[in-house]
Amino acid sequence: MARIAWVNLPNGKHVEIALTYIYWVWRPLSNTILEKLKIEKTRKIETLEEKELDLIRDELKTRLIEWDLRRFVSSNIKRLQEINCYRGQRHSKKLPVRWQRTRTNARTRKWKALAVAWKKK
Predict the structure, then answer these.
(1) At how many degrees (to 10) do helices 50-61 and 27-37 cross?
(2) Fold match flag (2-66 vs 84-121)
(3) What is the CATH number of domain 2-66?
(4) What is the pLDDT along the chain (121 residues), one digit of tens a residue?
């Protein structure tokens, strides 16, 4: 099992898909990394050599991913809450931030879904 950026990548997956297990690495980014390093997308993770894994690690170090990005996002949210701006207040109240409708939507953001009690069994 390969470990890149503190994430265990699953063995049975193709390299293109396995890289998407890393936070903020999606298919287009994984494709560009693999094209740059000239690694086939259809190879399985367990067939990669350590040298190839090191090349992928070095390429991902140049980008803001995983814990660094999570820390950056949470510090931005904290800053908004400290200056008490509109977006910070919405984050504090756990409401939608970007002007979404809340009268009928935003159930997942406002509260957890409740089981329907009157449903027939």
Answers:
(1) 120
(2) no
(3) 1.10.8.50
(4) 899 989 999 999 999 999 999 999 999 999 999 999 999 999 999 999 999 999 999 999 999 999 999 999 999 999 999 999 999 999 999 899 998 888 888 777 776 655 666 666 6
CA 65 → CA 26, 42, 99, distances in Å? 11, 23, 28
Give the start-to-end residue ranges of the domains of the chain. 2-66, 84-121
Q: What is the pTM of this model?
A: 0.75
Both structure tokens of 10: 């699953």
Third-level CATH fold of 84-121? 30s ribosomal protein s13; domain 2 (4.10.910)
What's the half-sphere exposure (Cβ side, CA atoms, 13 Å) at 102? 11
- Residue 21 is which amino acid? Y
Closest CA relative to residue 17, chosen from 70, 51, 46, 25: 25
60: number of Cβ within 10 Å: 19
Q: Is-contact 42 34, C-beta < 8 A?
A: no
